[in-house]
Design goal:
Blueprint: H1 2-7, E1 17-23, E2 26-32, H2 38-50, E3 60-62, E4 66-69, E5 105-108, E6 122-125, E7 138-144, H3 146-153, E8 169-176, H4 190-193, E9 196-202, E10 205-211, H5 217-229, E11 235-236, E12 239-241, E13 245-248, H6 260-263, E14 282-285, E15 298-301, E16 314-320, H7 322-329, E17 333-334, E18 337-338, E19 343-351
Antiparallel strand pairs: 1-2, 1-8, 2-7, 3-4, 4-6, 5-6, 5-7, 9-10, 9-19, 10-16, 11-19, 12-13, 13-15, 14-15, 14-16, 17-18
Length: about 350
C-alpha cells in the first residue's frame, strides 16, 4: 500500500504555479488567485497547456491602461472584424468579486449582459481600474514583465480600437514558482555595500560617489536600487544654489517616462540622521518639510553647511569629480533653476577596484 502511494503523483496546487507568457514583444509572468477564483484558474491552466493561446494576438488596448487577448478568432489575421467575439461561454461563473482590479491584475472578459459567460479571453490592468471592481473576475496577477505589457498597450489601434499590428502569444509555459529573487542590494552586508560606488556621467563631466552604509544603510540600499534600475538616467540637475548645494534626482526631469521596474523603487524613506558633517562633497538626501519624506532627490554640498547637520541624511561623498561639481555650480541660474541644461546621461553602480 505504501509503495502504491509513493507511485501516485502529488496533486498539483495552482498556488504553486506560474505561467510564463512568451509574446512577440517579450515575456511576462503570471501567478494565480487560486483560492479566490479556482475555476477560472483551472480553465486558464487547462487552455494554456493545450496550446490554446499560441498564435492568438492582443487585439484591444488602451495605452498605459489595459491590454486584452485570449480570443481564438485572432489566430486569423484576415478576420479582424471578428476580433473580440470568440472564446466565451465556457461554463465559468463569476468569482473573486471582492478583489480590486489594480495594476497588474489579470481579469476574465465577459460580454455585456452575460456576467457568467467568461472563457478564454482576458484583459490585464496596467493601471488601477477600480471603477470595474465587482463586475469581472480577477484570477491572476503579473509578477514580472509589466514593462513588456506597457509596451504592448501602446500598439496603434484603428477607429474600432482594434490593434493595427499583431502582438502574438508564442507560447505559455506552466511551471512551479521558483524561489523569490532578492531585491537588489537588500541582502549585502555593510562591508559588502562599502565596495560599491556610483558613477554619474553628466554633460559637465564624471562624478564618482563613495557610499556610507555604516552611517545610513537604508539610504545606501535605496540609492543603489534607484541607480541600478536606471531611474536617474536621462535626468538633469534641477537646482543650483552657488556656495550651498547642487541638487539632482528629481525624476520629473527625465527625458523618458519611468518604467514599471523603476517605479517600484520610487518610495519615501525614513530618515537616518547621523554625525557626518555637511562639508564640501557630501551627498545627502533631499526631503520636504516632513522628516521622513525623502524619496529620490539628493544634493551635493559645495561648502561647510553646519545648519544641515543632523537635519538631513548623509549617505555618500564625492571622491572624484569635485571639479565637475564646481563647473555645474557655476552654471547661470534663475532663482536656483539652471538657465542651461545640466544633463545626467547615466548613473551606474560599479565596484571599487
Amino acid at each position: 500500500m505504501l509503495f502504491l502511494l509513493l507511485l501516485m503523483p502529488q496533486q498539483e496546487n495552482p498556488k504553486d504555479l506560474q505561467a510564463v507568457v512568451e509574446t512577440t514583444s517579450g515575456t511576462f509572468i503570471l501567478q494565480f488567485h487560486a483560492d479566490d477564483a479556482p475555476n477560472h484558474v483551472r480553465k486558464f491552466l487547462e487552455l494554456a497547456r493545450q496550446g490554446f493561446y499560441n498564435g492568438t494576438s492582443f487585439h484591444t488596448m488602451l495605452a498605459h491602461g489595459v491590454v486584452q487577448g485570449g480570443d481564438p478568432e485572432t489566430r486569423n489575421p484576415n478576420a479582424r472584424n471578428k476580433y473580440g467575439s470568440g472564446g466565451f461561454d465556457m461554463g465559468l461563473k463569476r468569482e473573486a468579486l471582492t478583489l480590486p482590479l489594480k495594476a497588474g491584475t489579470v481579469v476574465a472578459t465577459t460580454l455585456p449582459g452575460k456576467p457568467d459567460g467568461a472563457g478564454s479571453q482576458f484583459f490585464i490592468c496596467l493601471s488601477d481600474q477600480l471603477q470595474l471592481n465587482g463586475q469581472y473576475t480577477p484570477f491572476a496577477y503579473v509578477v514580472d514583465g509589466m514593462d513588456v505589457l506597457d509596451k504592448i498597450s501602446m500598439t496603434p489601434v484603428d477607429d474600432n480600437k482594434t490593434a493595427k499590428d499583431r502582438i502574438e502569444i508564442k507560447n505559455i509555459t506552466i511551471r512551479r514558482t521558483p524561489p523569490p529573487v532578492p531585491t537588489p542590494y537588500s541582502e549585502e552586508t555593510i562591508e559588502q555595500l562599502k565596495q560599491f560606488q556610483v558613477v554619474m556621467e553628466t554633460s559637465k563631466g564624471k562624478i564618482v560617489i563613495d557610499l556610507m552604509p555604516d552611517k545610513a544603510p537604508n539610504h545606501v540600499r535605496h540609492f543603489l536600487q534607484l541607480t541600478g534600475s536606471g531611474a536617474y538616467d536621462k535626468s538633469a540637475v534641477h537646482r543650483i544654489a552657488p556656495g550651498f548645494v547642487i541638487q539632482a534626482g528629481d525624476l520629473n526631469t527625465r527625458k523618458e517616462p519611468l518604467t514599471f521596474d523603476m517605479r517600484k523603487y520610487v518610495t519615501t524613506i525614513k530618515a537616518e540622521l547621523n554625525d557626518v558633517k555637511h562639508q564640501a562633497g557630501i551627498v545627502s538626501m533631499a526631503r520636504g518639510e516632513a522628516l521622513d519624506s525623502g524619496a529620490t532627490s539628493f544634493f551635493i554640498v559645495l561648502g561647510d553647511q553646519p545648519a544641515l547637520d543632523g537635519v538631513y541624511t548623509v549617505f555618500g561623498k564625492v571622491v572624484e569629480g569635485m571639479d565637475v561639481v564646481s563647473k555645474i555650480s557655476a552654471v547661470p541660474n534663475d532663482n536656483e533653476k539652471p538657465l542651461e541644461p545640466v544633463d545626467i546621461y547615466s548613473m551606474r553602480v560599479v565596484r571599487k577596484n
